[in-house]
Amino acid sequence: MKKLAIIITALAALAACSGKRLTEDDVRAVMGSVEASVKRHDANSLVAHFAPNAMIMVSMPGTSGLSRMSVGEYKTMLEGLWKVQLHSSYEVSNREVALSSNGRSATARDIAKEVVLLPGERMESLSKQKAEIALVDGVPRIISLTSEVESLTATPTTAKN
């Protein structure tokens, strides 16, 4: 009888875990938190929303293919850029969320506009972003992020005397 109770408890726990589904609100909350982390230049908070083995892919105008990075490489790149920035702005628009039919994953797409002031240069980019989000140990995490930079303009700045 004790074995039967253990089996029933295990099956109930499995059913409860397998019944968890992503919602659009879950996805929007993750993406909103990622956006806020970027605006605060908080790399630790940002990468906390990624699965440990997530892949980040970026394409730039004038290059062929996608540049691939691990979560750690992405964090290092952002921290390096944020250290030399004088000012930046990051705005996201046109966010669309599509949930999978099984409720275990979703795709979020949006447009990101970023303006970065570096020593001697102002850079502005417009990117199409696509994040794949899945339940990882029951928690919504980004498993893949693709950013296709559609336009990138760099304008020299001059120091004011």
TrEMBL record:
Alphabetized PROSITE patterns for the sequence: PROKAR_LIPOPROTEIN (PS51257)
The entry's keywords: Signal
Entries under InterPro entries matching the protein: NTF2-like_dom_sf
Keyword presence, Disulfide bond: no
Signal peptide interval: 1-15
Entry keyword annotation includes Signal: yes
The protein, known as: SnoaL-like domain-containing protein
